[in-house]
Design a protein that fits this description.
Two copies of one chain form a homodimer.
Chain A (H helix, E strand, L loop, with lengths): L1 E7 L2 E6 L11 E9 L4 H5 L15 E8 L11 E4 L9 H4 L20 E4 L2 H4 L1 E3 L8 H9 L3 H11 L7 E5 L3 H12 L4 E5 L3 H10 L3 E3 L3 H12 L3 E6 L4 H9 L1 E9 L7 E3 L1 H5 L3 E4 L4 H14 L9 E6 L3 H9 L5 E5 L4
Parallel strand pairs in A: 8-9, 8-11, 9-10, 11-12, 12-14, 15-16
Antiparallel strand pairs in A: 1-2, 3-4, 3-6, 3-16, 4-5, 5-7
Helix pairs in contact in A: 5-6, 5-11, 6-7, 8-9
GO molecular function (chains A, B): oxidoreductase activity; zinc ion binding
Protein name (chains A, B): Zinc-dependent alcohol dehydrogenase family protein
Keywords (chains A, B): Metal-binding, Oxidoreductase, Zinc
């Protein structure tokens, strides 16, 4: 089968690999219909983080179940599913608490989704069943369903851990696909004022379409001053969807006392002066999204009933054979997020 | 009037100072009935933090209002009140969000409560009216009312920011008066399993009386291992009531994914590796307690109806003239917390 393989920084290619098979009784094999490129893939694509040459890549997909292991009884061959990058078992302390991204029983990394087939463990609870078949949906709806494998759930995690509630004023740091999904999530949870930090016109436009009420293009101290001026003392919640040092520092300063910063940007800098949090009762939460939890509880319904349209983050589309171009478009900021059409719907 | 003055590390004394007067229209002058010594007073008493020699000290009291400024209309002379160490205005973004310990309109530090009289600003909203007069209450009840000026509210803040909810399993780090009040708060919020970290028999006993279900005497890695063994994956919430590096490190490791650490121990070390939080979705919240908010919403009623008895943290009592002995008893760990009887009830 065709699968995307990492060669070296700046280079991925489609190779012919063995089709995956059931290895454990909790596995499922999925025939991929749509996949995409994640902002986090750019870390190793750009050579910023280490990655093993020759490894299969990608961790976002929707597709149709082909076979299942003997312990899988909630999902059956032929089911159309969201394939989360997370692998929640549904039964451990983390999953039961609604943090399936940190499932204590997961035993495989999420890799190889930019391919014709993939193997998914903890299929019984982790996969999210979509009604009907891919052919029942428009291209736009398939795009939105695809975002439920990672980016939309990750944006939602920022809002959920920042504890955004009805009537809140929030700041969203980051205008990438995750930040834009954070805007959607903040609105979905009832925020009435959503300040998007963005300095790119195309992304500002999409942020406004998704529900942002204000755009702040400033950065650093100027951004903090602007938000405090706009809000009379700071916002109720902050979604940190970047992870670099400046963004995190800004995030910690724009909340009113007691505000929580929900982080989903992979932190660039580990060491932090946490006394600045204590002095103003600023909370810090976040981490890996609880994809299956959010999809099943909220997001799948919100996509299916048209309340949210996160698929608009895909501004360019590529065939699997053109995977290099899909990465390059994101790397060069020509695409907000690159869709990969793996098979006909 | 008699007032406690800091002389130098290890030495406080009662001096004759001018009685305070109304300085601002939002002030009240309070005749103090009971005061006490705080664990945080020991920082400068022990010379660990700087403190100006000759300054009046103490920040916990109950008493009777003597005079009020012209803008004070919710409190009148003769009212019996809890005098919080915080000074919430009730109207700013912090107070409205329930974080009056970080009031944006406070303009004086909380000092000079270990005295016959004190001046309190933001009296209109900040003070907490107690029904009746001091003479209507038993000594035990006065002790519990006194804890509402700081220690009980601070313990409650740890539980509130750790988001302890009904049915939770929690760990309380610290067996000082704040930690013991944290045990009370966790139980009040419905925690069903409360693991108290304590290695002192008298404090273990009080923790159990307050609602702790388990005692862990180990520290550091051994404490983490013990809690994980007791709880199958970690607790739902952690109350950090110490602030030293080892306690904070332990606190960050005993929660299940998604757990929140509510901190009220003044942090000894500012720099922290926050990636350990991100990797397990551990939240970090806390800071200065919202004393007036908690007292008015929950704690005053809970004390008055006998549901909680935090006054038991006072294990020794002193006259104001014996203030040096009151400090020494806490410094030498002979008292869990020292009560100071300033005037007859």
């Amino acid at each position: 089968m065709k699968a995307t393989v990492f060669i070296k920084p700046g280079k991925v290619e489609v190779q012919n690999l063995d089709k995956p098979v059931i290895e454990k009784e909790t596995d499922a094999i999925i025939r991929v219909v749509r996949a995409c490129v994640c902002g986090s893939d750019l870390w190793w694509y750009r050579g910023i983080s280490e990655h093993e040459s020759g490894s299969a890549v990608g961790h976002e997909a929707i597709g149709v179940v082909e076979t299942v292991g003997s312990a899988v009884d909630t999902i059956k061959p032929g089911d159309f599913v969201v394939v989360p990058f997370t692998h929640g078992c549904g039964n451990c302390a983390a999953c039961l608490a609604g943090f399936d991204g940190d499932c204590l029983n997961r035993d495989s990394h999420s890799v190889g989704y930019q391919a014709e087939y993939l193997r998914y463990d903890n299929a019984n609870w982790g996969l999210v069943k979509i009604p009907g078949q891919p052919s029942d949906y428009s291209e736009e709806m398939l795009n939105s369903l695809l975002t439920l494998s990672d980016v939309m759930a990750t944006g939602y995690h920022a809002a959920a851990t920042a504890e955004v509630k009805s009537g809140d004023t929030v700041v969203v740091m980051g205008d990438g696909a995750v930040g834009l999904c954070g805007v959607i999530a903040a609105k979905l949870r009832g925020a009435t004022r959503i300040i998007a930090m963005s300095r790119h016109e195309d992304r500002q436009k999409l942020a406004l379409e998704f529900g942002a009420t204000d755009i702040v293009a400033e950065r650093g101290d100027e951004a903090v001053a602007k938000v405090l001026e706009l809000t009379d003392g700071g916002v109720d919640a902050v979604l940190e969807c970047v992870g670099n040092e400046q963004s995190v520092e800004t995030a910690l300063q724009v909340g009113r006392p007691g505000a929580i910063v929900g982080r989903v940007g992979i932190p660039q800098k580990a060491e932090m002066n946490t006394n600045q949090l204590f002095r103003r009762n600023i909370g810090l939460r976040g981490g890996i999204a609880a994809v299956t939890t959010y999809d099943k509880a909220t997001l799948l319904d919100a996509v299916l009933n048209g309340e949210i349209n996160p698929g608009k983050v895909f501004t360019q589309s590529f065939a699997l054979d053109d995977i290099q171009a899909a990465y390059a478009a994101m790397d060069e900021r020509k695409a907000i997020k690159s869709l990969v059409v793996v098979a006909d719907k």
